[in-house]
Amino acid sequence: MSPTVLRHGPYRFFFISREEPRMHIHVTCNEGEAKFWLEPEVELAYKHKLSRKQLGKVSRSSSSIVWRLPMPGAITSDIEVTHISKHGLWLLAGAEELFLPFDDFPWFRDASVKDVLNVEEPTQGHYYWPALDVDLSLNIIRDPARYPLKAKSKR
Description:
5-stranded antiparallel β-sheet; 155 residues; 3 helices; alpha+beta; 3-stranded antiparallel β-sheet
């Protein structure tokens, strides 16, 4: 997944880890996308369907965020879905990588990729997917058998 560095108006600035050694930033919006080299100076590397006016705005924003970029090897987010397979999803929580199998966490099986990737950590060890209205604690993820999906009725 691609860590977001900045959201500015309709633009999302992000980078792709381990893509290539020369420092650069990707920018996307509804109308198109672009890639800018950030060293030795800000320079357009690629554009797709963005107007000159949009490129000017994006270029100025790219120049102003160079100082915000993390150093290589730095942790870029505290919580991130790093992979989705046909069996489940991988969640990177701090330094711990957790697997959430669809058999134990069925809410994610038919969800859109966009909704699965949109995860927040409102408090430490508590994860929330707003579009799916799913709340999970670290304990539930580590040991789902202790937390059944259905309440047992007392008869």
